[in-house]
Amino acid sequence: MQLVAALIYWVIVALWLGVLVAVLVYYSRNPKIFGVTRLLLFVVALDTCRNIVENTYFGLFFGSQYGFFPAGIAGVLGNPDSLSFRSWSMLLQDVL
């Protein structure tokens, strides 16, 4: 069960990377076709990047707690400063 719990974050990262690649590929092929939806694509891309970083963070954290990565990673990522960075980045995204 611990393996599934640790791997689910990496599955989510792979899915979000697929979303990000799709957005970037479709936009780069013909940016004029999107017109006013460019802002929506920017928001989707920004949220996708945030989700990739967040799930990578938790994948590393729980993976190190379950012994799949070095134990020192959980000590560093469990630091309250690391968690406050995540909160500030979410706040910055909401302001943008």
- Level of helix content? over 70%
Strand element count: 0
Largest sheet: none
Residue windows where pLDDT falls under 50 for at least 5 positions = none
CA-to-CA gap between the ends? 38 Å
* Count of runs of 4 or more consecutive helical residues: 4
Reading the helices and strands in chain order gives HHHH
Overall 3D geometry? elongated
Quickly count the domains: 1
Mean pLDDT: 83
Oligomer: single chain
Structural class: mainly alpha
Radius of gyration of CA atoms, rounded to a whole number: 16 Å
Q: Strand-residue fraction? A: under 5%
Structure, described:
There is one protein chain. The chain is mostly helical. It has one domain. It is 82% helix and 0% strand. It is built from four helices and no strands.
Overview features:
single chain; 96 residues; 4 helices; elongated
In short:
This protein is mostly helical and 96 residues long.
List the helices and strands and how they pair.
Layout: H1 2-29, H2 38-65, H3 71-77, H4 80-95
Helix pairs in contact: 1-2, 2-3, 2-4
